[in-house]
Amino acid sequence: MCAKRFVAVTIDALSYLSIIFLTIFLSKNPKIVSIPLLFAFLTIFDDASTPAAITTEAGLSFLGLGDPTFPTWGQILHDAHTFGAASRGLWWWIIPPGAMVAITGLAFVFIGNALDAIINPKLKR
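RESULT FIELD:
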């Protein structure tokens, strides 16, 4: 039946993206992905990619590849390294931005785990 519907839809000259949309959102078949499963996947993907983006930006700015006029945690760490804050004992240039990168990343991971426990229907009993 699914193959007949696919052939019928392709004869109507719908794009493959619209076929995927119709299959996911309008399907009555329980074997096909439903909206709650899709929403849980997108939420987890978003919560996992945010810490990666933060650490990537901080790492690139620390290496000197960021915008020097825009203050970021990586840029602060780069400035601390450039001016020798570690050898001078200026820990307050190093610890707060590094800790904030770690705390922000962990916060998004914990929020993602909590949302996964709330949203994911496979985890509910």
